[in-house]
Amino acid sequence: MGSVGHVQPQSMHFAEPLPLKSGAALRDYTLVYETYGTLNAARDNAVLVCHALNASHHVAGTYDGQPKSEGWWDNLVGPGKPLDTTKFFVIGINNPGSCFGSTGPMQVDPATDQPYGAHFPVVTVEDWVDAQARLLDRLGITQLAAVLGGSLGGMQALSWSLRHPDRLRHCIAVATAPNLSAQNIAFNEVARRAIVTDPDFHGGHFYAYGTVPKRGLRVARMIGHITYLSDDSMEAKFGRSLKGEAFGYSTQDIEFEIESYLRYQGDKFSDYFDANTYLLITRALDYFDPAREHGGDLTAAFAQARCKFQLVSFTTDWRFSPARSREIVKALLDNRLSVSYAEIDAPHGHDAFLLDDSRYHALLRQRFANIAAEVK
């Protein structure tokens, strides 16, 4: 197994407005993307990889001259890897509203010549899927061999099967859900409040003040990171280990190793992620609910799907529990669609979809081998 090597992001500009689910439109926007492998003559070996909350178009490979710049799913995508780039043309697209190059709150609004900031329009999973479809149109790809995503990326994969049912042959949705539970929405709201109440947030227009609401971003990341891990994995990695040799009897200083770890994650996140983007993406998570337009009937929502499905969940993932994947599986079976489901007993919690679990990777390797056999 090898790496795709050094990669180079590309960008594509769109002058035509993108209608958004809110009724607004995104005008004059750019999408950043990367590709790995070669598109075959029949143009039927393309796989779209959809990114989750804090990821981007940089799925695999490295950037020349930048150490530790591996793509966020580099362990899965590459020559000889489960998603084999010697067989597939893999595409990663940075969604609008992000802070990694595609048009988002940090970019200049052509209508005002100022950064969008809080004025960037609210975007949804469905809007992202439509933007991705436009980019694929430009690449001359009319049908995808598969759409793959984990977590929020899995929601996008599911949305592809509903909004563009004839444009994909396989949907592979990992560690995802048909909508967020009330508890999940609550976690997102606490994280958002941490950001918007930071004095440096300035109503979302902090760029003009030369500030960054780092305190809010740190807390938001710490909250989120707790939900990505299982109790077992946190116990195994940190337990009640102290940072020092004994209690310092302080209410503000770091006492436990888990506190040090969370602060490190928060500090790192606040250095590279945009606060307005965090608000937008967590709202997109909240809004995703394909059954809502069908009176809450998920079976009715999936009646329009046509592709084959692979669902994967992890037993210790309490944020997107296996029960949520089973809801999707039932709706697909009710519609007599082709669906395979794997529930993997892994200790890592939600983050398991990013890790090197041999059973999980073997499953995806076999699935993509079967898809490759269908390619012309």
Strand tally: 14
Strand order of the largest sheet: 1-4-8-5-11-12-13-14
Number of domains: 2
CATH class term of the largest domain: Alpha Beta
Report how far the terminal alpha carbons are from each other. Answer: 24 Å
> By CATH's scheme, which homologous superfamily of the largest domain applies?
Alpha/Beta hydrolase fold, catalytic domain
Order of helices and strands: EEEEEEEEEEHEHEHHHHHHEHEH
- Mean pLDDT metric: 96
Number of helices: 10
Coarse shape: globular
**What structural category characterises the helix and strand content?**
alpha/beta
What's the CATH architecture of the largest domain?
Answer: 3-Layer(aba) Sandwich
Description:
The chain is of the alpha/beta class and 376 residues long. It folds into two domains: 10-179 and 292-374, Alpha/Beta hydrolase fold, catalytic domain (Rossmann fold); 184-282, Rna Polymerase Sigma Factor, Chain: A. 34% of the residues lie in helices and 15% in strands. The chain is built from ten helices and 14 strands. It has helices spanning 125-138, 152-163, 182-196, 214-228, 231-237, 257-272, 275-287, 298-301, 322-334, 358-374, and strands at 10-14, 18-19, 25-26, 29-36, 46-50, 77-78, 83-84, 89-93, 108-109, 114-115, 146-150, 170-174, 308-314, 339-344. The strands form four sheets. The protein has an eight-stranded mixed beta sheet with strand order 1-4-8-5-11-12-13-14, sandwiched between helices. Helix 3 (182-196) runs antiparallel to helix 4 and helix 3 (182-196) packs antiparallel against helix 7 (275-287). The chain starts with 9 loop residues before the first strand and ends with a helix. The mean pLDDT is 96. Its EC number is 2.3.1.46. It catalyses: L-homoserine + succinyl-CoA = O-succinyl-L-homoserine + CoA.
